[in-house]
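Fig. S4 source data, part A: sequence.
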Amino acid sequence: MSIVLYWHPMSSATPIACALAELDVPHEHIKVDIKAGEQRRPDYLALNPNGKVPTLTVDGAPMFEALAIHLWLGERFGVDRGLWPKAGTPEHLQAMSWSTWSYVTYGAVLVRLQVATQGEEALRSARHAEAASAGLDALLGLLDARLATQPWMLGNDYSLVDLIVGSVIGYSAYLGAPLANHGHVRDWLARVQARPAMQADA
């Protein structure tokens, strides 16, 4: 199986690079220089019509959207490596739910914070930033409650769910999400970020 990751450093492709490292999946890295506009070249748009990274090709067949790639990697490689639960188990339902929660539910509010604080000047708003921060605080409370009862997202053992959710939470901390009142989340995030695979974006 030939796997190629189209990627740019310090981008939304970074968690995919980390997941491939965590799973020890042989693959090729191809850098797409998004600062130079290479993501808009016709040959790249043929793989990813969004003109963004990441893109993963499997024997030449392209896949895009980071969450979709994560879930495929979990199903294809994670089960055998003990990093993703088997289909049909309660843990698998939780893996799908929390992974999607991080990218969709939490991610939607995070975008609001990003636009209000770092978007175009006309879209920046202290009031909207405060509202988004409050929304993230409530969602972090849900995550904190879960991590108060277990060390990792699915229980006693690390899994790709920790990498997936941790990547989103880590980025939100960089943008100023209110992690200060959520000690369990902070401690868990530090453990996730300390894993060697989390340094694989190179």
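Fig. S4 source data, part B ends here. The chain has a mean pLDDT of 95.
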